[in-house]
Amino acid sequence: MSAIRRFEDAMLPFFQDAFDLARFRVKPLEHYAYDWWQPIAWLTTLAILPVLLALGKTGNPLGMLAFSLAASWGQALLFTFFFAWWIRKHPQTQIRGSLFPLVVLASSAQLSGLLLSITPEMLVPLVFLGLLVYQFAVLLNALAKTHSLPVRYMVNGLMVYLAGCFALSVLIAMLLIMAGVEMPQLPAAPANAPATAQGNA
Predict the structure, then answer these.
(1) How far from each other are the two terminal CA atoms of the chain, in whole angstroms?
(2) pLDDT digits (tens, 9 = 90+) for 93-134
(3) What are the CA-CA distances from residue 52 to residues 108, 118, 167 (Å)?
(4) For the stretch 64-76, what's the b/e string if a residue is b when 16 or more beta carbons lie within 10 angstroms of its beta carbon?
(5) For position 192, what pLDDT does the model report?
(6) Does this model's pTM top 0.85?
(7) Residue 148, Cα to own-chain centre: how many angstroms?
(8) Do residues 180 and 117 lie in contact, with contact meaning Cβ atoms separated by under 8 Å?
């Protein structure tokens, strides 16, 4: 019981900080210092949660879990390293601690994506776009305010980051094609589908 109590005492301030960031309330970067396992456990949970919610809707849950973990960790680390470099480029500031816990906390905004499951189908694209903008706004606001930088500077960094990710994706796709790796394709319609439809008519 004491172990559960210690876990609660450790995680409640962590979750409170995540909730504050989601409401655009930001504290100095030094505040976001936690035990090493807390951001690791929370980032892993954020990766596992969509897989758990999709159980029964996919034929390969282990493959989906591996992809989700790799994507979440890769995105968080790449975002952390890039913006650490981008912030250091600004002549009027310097990083006074690790960005990783802050990035993980701000990534909690992706939980808002759960709203898509109760959104009418015709509104899903619009809601998805709005939630995506909100998630980036939480991240950029946290990074800007913890380093007293203009939000516009962070938005410019995001544009560079996204352009770099796109170029990297194209490069990886080209290398896979050159290596002879076949890209996944949508399943074709059954050959007898028109005939069946005709027969029914």
Answers:
(1) 68
(2) 878 789 999 999 999 988 887 787 788 889 888 988 999 999
(3) 17, 17, 32
(4) bbeebeeebeebb
(5) 46
(6) no
(7) 24
(8) no
